[in-house]
Amino acid sequence: PPPALRLVPDFPDGGEPSAERLRRQRVCLERLGRPPAPTDVRGTVRVLGCPGPKEVTVRYTFNEWLSFVDVPAVPLPPAAAGDPPAERYSFTLCVPPSLREGSALHFAVRYRSPQGEYWDNNGGRNYTLRCCGCPGGGPAPPSAAGSPPPP
């Protein structure tokens, strides 16, 4: 049978976003589900809380930014109080069945508030997941952003 496809993160595991990074960017990718599924990619984002309306979206593409989709992130219940006061959001990116081995999914996170528009785009490189073949459809290696080490 043909190898099963999997999405493999093509960026280093940055661990939990630091308080300094969150203060500087106001929005950070917190973690991806592990492994990213061949049909969808799930993750969480942290934003620096502020009063007023806010919008958190994930912009992603499968064709090197010839076109893109913006998907709203959904607020999660508040966690324990921390410094800085961060809010958490979850997102799901739908992966088309036409994705082939060697292709890539690129994404970045946008946060809009009355204070402005902020992006986490992996330091200008975007976050990238590569579509790879996997004999037997085994799990992806443990390299997703912010994922805890394997047991």
From TrEMBL:
<dbReference type="InterPro" id="IPR005036">
    <property type="entry name" value="CBM21_dom"/>
</dbReference>
<protein>
    <submittedName>
        <fullName>Protein phosphatase 1 regulatory subunit 3G</fullName>
    </submittedName>
</protein>
<dbReference type="InterPro" id="IPR050782">
    <property type="entry name" value="PP1_regulatory_subunit_3"/>
</dbReference>
<feature type="domain" description="CBM21">
    <location>
        <begin position="19"/>
        <end position="130"/>
    </location>
</feature>
<dbReference type="GO" id="GO:0005979">
    <property type="term" value="P:regulation of glycogen biosynthetic process"/>
</dbReference>
<dbReference type="GO" id="GO:2001069">
    <property type="term" value="F:glycogen binding"/>
</dbReference>
<dbReference type="GO" id="GO:0008157">
    <property type="term" value="F:protein phosphatase 1 binding"/>
</dbReference>
<feature type="region of interest" description="Disordered">
    <location>
        <begin position="1"/>
        <end position="20"/>
    </location>
</feature>
<dbReference type="GO" id="GO:0000164">
    <property type="term" value="C:protein phosphatase type 1 complex"/>
</dbReference>
<dbReference type="Pfam" id="PF03370">
    <property type="entry name" value="CBM_21"/>
</dbReference>
<dbReference type="InterPro" id="IPR038175">
    <property type="entry name" value="CBM21_dom_sf"/>
</dbReference>
